[in-house]
Design a protein that fits this description.
Elements: H1 3-15, H2 19-36, E1 43-45, H3 59-68, E2 71-78, E3 83-88, E4 95-97, E5 103-105, E6 110-111, E7 118-122, E8 125-126, E9 132-133, H4 139-144, E10 152-156, E11 177-179, E12 184-186
Parallel strand pairs: 1-2, 1-7, 7-10, 10-11
Antiparallel strand pairs: 2-3, 3-6, 4-5, 8-9, 11-12
Length: 188
């Protein structure tokens, strides 16, 4: 399937989720992540959910990262060049919702991509090799290419299924692993 077809299909699948299912899936994913990975003293780029897109609720994970001694990093989107600027997360009052429904920092200390240890990557779908289909603007591919070679790229998917992506391109950067409500997948 083409990415545009996959994108449309999985947006519809998400729309079909009740908020109760979304909450349950998010809790299961968070628990699996915390069982599998130690985040102490690591700089972790975490995406915050676009509620209208029924994305994984990352706020409980954000709280647990802080408790574990991690340094959470959040991003601000530049829709002119489809890039992300990274900021150290300070507190909830630092956030505002942009016109696209994305919670973003209003202020904060800017962080270089090269210092990240982990990047949580949003996605709609993925294939068995860790290639993902996102919203199609390339924000995360541009971010991941700037990360150091030791940085771990973690996808979060609400669905336990793989797709065939017919139109991969050289700019697509595969994930190292992915968490779903029921499984942990490694791709490297």
């Amino acid at each position: 399937m083409l990415k545009s077809e996959i994108r449309a299909l999985f947006k519809e699948k998400r729309k079909g989720l009740s908020f109760l299912e979304l909450n349950r899936f998010s809790t299961q994913i968070t628990n699996l992540i915390l069982e599998k990975i130690d985040f102490k003293n690591k700089q972790i780029s975490i995406f915050l959910p676009i509620e209208k897109q029924k994305e994984y609720d990352s706020y409980p994970l954000l709280e647990r990262l802080i408790i574990q001694g991690a340094i959470p990093i959040i991003s601000k989107s530049n829709f002119e060049d489809h890039s992300l600027t990274l900021y150290t997360y300070e507190n909830i009052s630092q956030l505002e919702i942009n016109p696209f429904g994305i919670p973003e920092p209003k202020y904060g200390e800017i962080v270089s991509e090269s210092f990240l240890n982990v990047v949580f990557v949003p996605l709609l779908a993925l294939d068995k090799n860790g290639n993902r289909v996102g919203y199609g603007k390339g924000f995360y591919d541009k971010l991941l290419i700037k990360c150091n070679s030791e940085c771990l790229f973690i996808g979060i998917s609400l669905f336990d299924e793989f797709v065939e992506i017919d139109d991969l391109n050289p700019f697509d950067i595969p994930l190292h692993c992915c968490f779903t409500p029921n499984r942990y997948y490694e791709f490297r």
